[in-house]
């Protein structure tokens, strides 16, 4: 199956949609063996906006419709340039690819591009698999704002080191269950 061309992908999505339509109609006929095709169509398929034959259920004057595969936005895969490898040391190239990763949120991608793939705290490039955290340059507890100009992307260990040194943790008590002691042995108390 060739999936490099958008038109080919659209064709496959259309075939899947048609198959689902036939299967749904067969299900509806089995569910209502004594009803006509017209009755079944009126019950399950509706006109929503400009689209006819939408498989949908009406709940409180709103329709909940089945997602159509041909409506899936087709995202082209960006090929790796030449003989590039994550192990070749070209961190600029690989950090720029991370910004296009589907799991990278917009804020992280914007900060990665602005910082050219480098952590400002340690100066090393971000690599695929690195744990990255968004940091406020001037902490909110010290009057900083949640704006892009006050944000930077750091490695997790760099963020921990910076947060410990800038005094933004003063007065904050961690109630994370991972750092609390288990109460299995100590019957009289759960946490020190």
UniProtKB/TrEMBL annotation:
<dbReference type="InterPro" id="IPR002711">
    <property type="entry name" value="HNH"/>
</dbReference>
<feature type="domain" description="HNH nuclease">
    <location>
        <begin position="106"/>
        <end position="160"/>
    </location>
</feature>
<keyword id="KW-0255">Endonuclease</keyword>
<dbReference type="GO" id="GO:0004519">
    <property type="term" value="F:endonuclease activity"/>
</dbReference>
<dbReference type="GO" id="GO:0008270">
    <property type="term" value="F:zinc ion binding"/>
</dbReference>
<keyword id="KW-0540">Nuclease</keyword>
<dbReference type="GO" id="GO:0003676">
    <property type="term" value="F:nucleic acid binding"/>
</dbReference>
<dbReference type="Pfam" id="PF08388">
    <property type="entry name" value="GIIM"/>
</dbReference>
<dbReference type="Pfam" id="PF01844">
    <property type="entry name" value="HNH"/>
</dbReference>
<keyword id="KW-0378">Hydrolase</keyword>
<dbReference type="InterPro" id="IPR003615">
    <property type="entry name" value="HNH_nuc"/>
</dbReference>
<dbReference type="InterPro" id="IPR013597">
    <property type="entry name" value="Mat_intron_G2"/>
</dbReference>
<protein>
    <submittedName>
        <fullName>HNH endonuclease</fullName>
    </submittedName>
</protein>
């Amino acid at each position: 199956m060739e999936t490099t061309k958008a038109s080919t992908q659209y064709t496959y999505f259309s075939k899947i949609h048609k198959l689902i339509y036939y299967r749904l109609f067969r299900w509806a006929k089995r569910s209502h063996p004594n009803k006509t095709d017209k009755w079944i169509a009126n019950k399950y398929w509706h006109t929503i906006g400009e689209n006819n034959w939408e498989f949908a259920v009406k709940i409180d004057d709103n329709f909940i419709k089945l997602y159509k595969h041909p409506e899936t936005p087709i995202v082209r895969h960006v090929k790796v340039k030449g003989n590039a490898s994550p192990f070749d040391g070209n961190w600029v190239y690989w950090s720029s690819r991370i910004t296009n990763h589907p799991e990278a949120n917009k804020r992280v991608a914007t900060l990665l591009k602005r910082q050219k793939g480098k952590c400002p705290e340690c100066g090393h490039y971000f690599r695929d698999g690195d744990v990255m955290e968004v940091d406020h340059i001037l902490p909110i507890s010290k009057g900083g704002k949640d704006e892009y100009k006050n944000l930077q992307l750091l490695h997790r260990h760099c963020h921990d080191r910076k947060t410990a040194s800038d005094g933004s943790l003063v007065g904050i008590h961690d109630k994370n269950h991972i750092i609390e002691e288990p109460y299995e042995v100590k019957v009289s108390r759960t946490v020190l």
